[in-house]
Specification:
The chain is built from 15 helices and 14 strands. The protein is of the alpha/beta class. An eight-stranded mixed beta sheet has the order 3-2-1-4-5-6-8-7, with helices on both faces. The protein has a six-stranded parallel beta sheet with strand order 11-10-9-12-13-14, with helices on both faces.
Length: 409
């Protein structure tokens, strides 16, 4: 069977698909990831064949350029879909991904001869491609902060950009439906996956979606954070608490990212712990003198170091939150935007961590929260409970076997 995996160009948007890609390949299926920009290389490093469905521009760079960036002219503007630069300047990433990537994804799926499309809930290009190709599809929830099966999310997603969902009746989607001749057809969904632990809003067993009867399926979240040659210390048990500090892949690039990191570094410097800074985006020279307990690790995959960590301090990204849950590590979140506040709420409500609001964050508050997480057993106990919940859920391999059997039936 040939399975197309359309993916948006963001680490937190594409990497959650990788364990399903691996499972499909290990089961003997042909696979193809359809993405663009820097995710094309990241997907290839994950061991998959990849097609760049929008080679004309780097959508990530165009978004980061911001509202004051000059529009390209001449050859740089040739072939861009109408409205592309307006969406980039307005920093509306998911509308931009839909506009830029849908046609290329459809073409790739057709050339590949896809029998099945597996796409994430927040990637309209994947959904529209499944409709255009006329093949069955599997929708994957790729976040621990929210799911389309949560009460009110479908409605909230229409007006709240932190959900990162382009509504079905958005001008971009309606225009593409008209141009591609899709009418009002919906994909033939064989299921939707919710990868969250039951106590964090996930499923204990399969249930039908009340909107359309499509089955919601539980699945174990398996973290994939990239690969790297691990430093020697990563495999050794620490002699004192090890804290992982990361701001993910986006926050270090945003205005104020260095200031936020300096605050966290200063707050954790007071602790009797080794602080591993997982960050290869920030110019550490801009931070000034570094404390003696800080280990600048550059890029190191979280799955390579979290096993022996006593605490993870981070920005509230869904992938980082989920990886910490997988390893049963308490978390301290300083949510920075997007759906980060929703992740913080999940973590604090479940008792697996604490959050400090950026508006009130100072070194004293962060230090105090870190001390609580390192010394109060309740957080580690709750994190271990969630880890066991997740381990009991069906694996990505089981889900792929079930879905492909449904296609073949």
């Amino acid at each position: 069977m040939r399975i197309l995996f359309p993916a948006a160009p963001g680490y937190g948007l594409m990497l959650p698909l990788v364990p399903l890609v691996w499972a499909a390949r290990a089961a003997g299926h042909e696979i193809l990831i359809a993405t663009t920009a820097h995710m094309a290389k990241a997907a290839a490093w994950a061991g998959a064949p990849v097609v760049d469905v929008f080679p004309l521009r780097d959508v990530g760079e165009d978004l980061v350029a911001g509202p004051d960036a000059p529009a390209p002219g001449g050859d740089d503007a040739a072939g861009l879909p109408e409205g592309y630069w307006e969406l980039a300047r307005a920093m509306r990433p998911f509308d931009l991904f839909t506009l830029a990537m849908t046609r290329g994804t459809v073409d790739a799926g057709r050339d590949f001869g896809a029998d099945l499309v597996v796409y994430c809930s927040d990637h309209q290009a994947g959904k529209l491609a499944a409709v255009a190709l006329g093949v069955p599809a599997l929708e994957v929830g790729n976040r621990v902060s929210w799911s389309m099966r949560d009460p009110g999310v479908r409605e909230a997603a229409r007006t709240n950009p932190r959900f990162g969902v382009v509504p079905d009746d958005s001008p971009v989607v309606l225009r593409l439906r008209q141009e591609l001749g899709l009418g009002e057809r919906e994909p033939d969904l064989l299921g939707r996956i919710d990868p969250r632990a039951p106590s964090l809003g996930g499923l204990e067993h399969e249930e039908a979606d009340p909107y359309d009867g499509v089955p919601w399926l539980p699945m174990r979240y398996v973290p994939y954070n990239g690969g790297a040659v691990l430093p020697e210390w990563a495999l050794r048990r620490p002699t004192r608490p090890r804290i992982c500090l990361t701001l993910g892949t986006v926050a270090p690039l945003l205005p104020g990212g260095t200031d936020a990191l300096r605050l966290l570094v200063d707050a954790l410097a007071a602790l009797d712990a080794d602080v591993v800074l997982a960050d290869d985006e920030t110019d550490l020279a801009a931070l000034g003198p570094l404390p003696a307990n800080l280990v600048p690790a550059g890029f190191v995959p979280l799955s390579g170091i979290l096993r022996d960590c006593a605490l993870v301090v981070h920005h509230g990204g869904s992938g980082t939150t989920a990886a910490a849950l997988h390893y049963g590590v308490p978390q301290l979140l300083v949510p920075s935007g997007a759906d980060n506040e929703l992740c913080a709420r999940r973590v604090t409500d479940r008792g697996v961590g604490l959050a400090v609001a950026p508006a009130t964050a100072d070194a004293a508050r962060i230090t105090a929260a870190a001390v609580r997480l390192l010394t109060e057993e309740s957080f580690r106990h709750a994190a271990a409970q969630v880890r066991h919940e997740m381990a009991a859920q069906p694996s990505p391999a089981e889900l792929i076997d079930r879905i492909t059997a449904g296609v073949a039936a």
